[in-house]
Amino acid sequence: MTVTQKKRRFTKEPRDNDAQLQEQEGATSQGPSALHHPPFAPFPPRHSLAPSSHTADDDFGQKYHCDACRKDLTHVVRIRCAVCSEFDLCVECFSTGAEPNAVHKKDHAYRVMEILDFPIFEEDWGADEEMLLVEGLEMFGIGNWEQIAEHIGTKNKLECAEHYDRVFVNSEDWPMPVCEGEESGRPRIVPKKLPRVAKPTSSAPTNHEISGYMPGRAEFETEHENEAEQYVKDMEFGDNEPPEDVELKTTILNIYNSTLDRRSERKKLIFERGLTDFRKVSRVDARRAKEEKDIITKMRVFAKVQTAQDAELMNEGLLNELKIRQRIAQLQECRRMGVTKLSDIQEYEQDKANRTSTPTSRATTPAKSFAPLPTPLVPATHPPRAATPAASLPGARKPPNQLDITTADGVDLLSSGEQTLCSNLRLYPRAYLVIKETLLKEYAAKGLLRRRQARELIKIDVNKTSKIYDYFVEMGWVSAVARPVLK
Q1: Do residues 167 and 54 lie in contact, with contact meaning Cβ atoms separated by under 8 Å?
Q2: For the whole model, what pTM was predicted?
Q3: Is the dihedral of CA 159, 161, 162, 167 positive or negative?
Q4: Domains of the chain, CATH where assigned
């Protein structure tokens, strides 16, 4: 059985087997005392450390490290090159194809060296310790239990000697060990059950992509008042500085401390409310309606003077108030439409949705939509010019279908004549109210409003502007002639 010699940190350099056998034969001929003091070679240069960091515990036991990144691999799985001598890599460097020297190539054959921590012959001796015991016997010889125990690293010389006697010497098949137990049928390679890895608090995008947030350090790449460090990074206090300079620097440091306090308050607000969990915040916002989002946005200004629980309670109360108001408005609309029973509301809402989704035509438009404009309450100074019907002109285009605004927002603010005007011009009530407010403000400011001025103020189709202007003149709301000045 050939056992590959393991490399050790802060131990003698690996030597070839011929040189080892010659030294062991020479030591055997000189007597048992020579076996207790084998010659040691100088430390390899790559294992050299500062004197302050080297202790006696570092030399005790078997040590392995990655030849690329110098990571300690003593208690983890490592990759050993089957071509290069005494060459180990960690899993990370092996996966990237690291080639730390000119000898090792990433396409070399390799072996996976697992942690053999399960017992074979005795419960308190693991398989890795059994291998180290056999290697120690091969390297130092039987009887040099102190060096063998140092090679194993976890057992003393008395435990090594007693274990060797019980397992190997007292075996009926000496030098083979005692194998009384039955084979348990354990597979050759048993995968270790790893603990479940918790999902990070970020998601797609990750925390690193959310405003430059670094979850490992609980910091942001761009902090609040990020330039504050520029004023203190090169500050020094000399021994013979004048008192004025010391006072100035102390004031700057106090200002910087205040900046750190403000940063801490803002971070506390963010962490208490879980704003770094991008997926959760996005999922909650996506379920809210536009009106609810507007309320939450307006209430954010009070977040810094409230705790997270108080802010949540206030937002919840405001959202409940919004839902109650919407329900009241819905019931009032149903009563105006003659629906007085709760059982009929669902049918009414279904009919309303069907009317909104179904395009209207002249054949289905009520006759009252084509009624003439009502007689103005205040007679106009100049009657409107008679317009030539477009349909009477040769080759004229057929007028478009009227717009159904019965369920549009703001229709209850219009008179029946204005509703008819908006339907014919295909204007929504809210847009018409903005046009009306603009024209009436201009007329109130200047005392007159001409058609050309109305077209300059309202940047829509000039034909629609002219019809709106004519309607306002007919209703007596505006006039192209200046109002008389009252004395």
Answers
A1: no
A2: 0.32
A3: positive
A4: 17-169 (1.10.10.60), 368-379+397-475 (1.10.10.10)
